[in-house]
Amino acid sequence: xxxxxxxxxxxxxxxxxxxxxxxxxxxxxxxxxxxxxxxxxxxxxxxxxxxxxxxxxxxxxxxxxxxxxxxxxxxxxxxxxxxxxxxxxxxxxxxxxxxxxxxxxxxxxxxxxxxxxx
Length: 118
Description:
Elements: E1 2-5, E2 11-14, H1 17-40, H2 49-56, H3 61-68, H4 73-80, H5 84-92, H6 99-109
Antiparallel strand pairs: 1-2
């Protein structure tokens, strides 16, 4: 390892490429371990490709997540404390849910509100 001081007084470190690559590998491994721990602790989940593909294809996110969770529409409506017809209108795109409604739906589906954004 070598240090260089710039004209502005900043100290830079020069590493052999192998050491630099080893640092990158260690950082990648640490991040992967964190993700694994979050999944194991229930703070995160793996999302199946089928769900991702449906979302990318433009399907309604509420409907996709509801289906993924194995919930009937009436069950989700009840859990989110909204009417089944209102949920149907949101899933069909006839209505946008209010922010408070979408928060309730996200909570009922155990997803982040961002996961329901289209």
